[in-house]
Amino acid sequence: MRSPAPHRRQPRHRALRGRAVSGGRAAGGGAVPAGQGEVEEEDRLARVALSRILEPGDELAGGWVARYGPVETARALAGERPLPGAGARRWAGLRLRAAAVDPAADLASATALGGRFLCPGDAEWPGQLDDLGAVRPLGLWVRGASSLRFAALRSVAVVGARACTEYGAHVASTLGCGLARRGWTVVSGAAYGVDGAAHRGALAVGGATVGVLACGVDVAYPPGNRELLARLGEQGWLLAELAPGEHPTRPRFVLRNRVIAALARGTVVVEAQLRSGSLVTARWAERLGRQTMGVPGPVTSGLSAGVHRLLRTEGRLVTCADEVIELVGSIGELAPEPRSPLLPRDLLPAATARVLEALPARHAVTVPWLARAAATAAEETRARLTELRSLGFVECSRDRWQLTRPAGRHPNG
Q1: How many domains is the chain built from?
Q2: pLDDT by residue (tens digit) across 12-24?
Q3: Do 293 and 391 sit in the same domain of this protein?
């Protein structure tokens, strides 16, 4: 039996009272930021209010918004009659939040930071987030100058341990730099360790990078990354589902990982323990049909144990940006085939190389002895030795031949 629609009684709190919409302008008289006029202003204000009331990734609440729309959902949260599926205690908690929201003030705070609030349907909205279905973000608070949608079209998530090793930081930075040089946007969580290294690698070459936060876009968390967060807000993008001023919690960190995974074409994990939020991101990527990749580390390192488990199941092994792009890019974007180093002796003709290989490593021999060892006629052996001497491979003393061993050079170099 279909549950009744939420009542349409106007709420008594200040969030969606008559001042919520006025002549197509934002509450309080503020105009809609440029490029965001595709969504009805009443819907935008309702989503702003809901970003303050609801927790990210709330599947039940996402179902309410899909069924009733953001405006009716926000209005219902001001009333006493719970929406379907909400218990009395939970509803009471949501009503406490709903009574205090002020969407106009939140929009003003974002504008003062140079930010904006994006809704599904806006031209700048990244359509790949819609793959999340009922747990799609209600909206995104964004700091950054240019279009997020275009930046996210070619994007890769690089995530990993906060307490990473020097190896992990180096790999993440190198990946961020390499991806950015090839025109790919680097997505991560702006945390310590691998996340910060990936962002810095992209910024170092003037590349595009997106930091997805588990707090408000005006909150500098973690505090040690304050400078990095400022650079992301100016040179890249900072994204948050939570309204300005909201602080991070452990569940919010876990839930923001779904946004990182959905935003990117693939997720690369660089160092992760068996129990790691980075693996949550990888699982979301797999669930959404994105590429999941991992960079191997020492088998003795606990920080690589989670990555190795990922590689044993659904993950693909990658070691550089070119290999990542081969998996997530267009047809023909292939990584160069790795080649072993070329040694001078590799360039020798086969007959000459055979004579060189027959020479003992530690003592000199005569031409007849070497001819037998190389199964080569004596005259040809002598000719090959002359060739090898001119190239610096061998030397002769009293008609006996031996390998040349200059200082610092291995006999087989």
Answers
A1: 3
A2: 334 444 333 222 3
A3: no
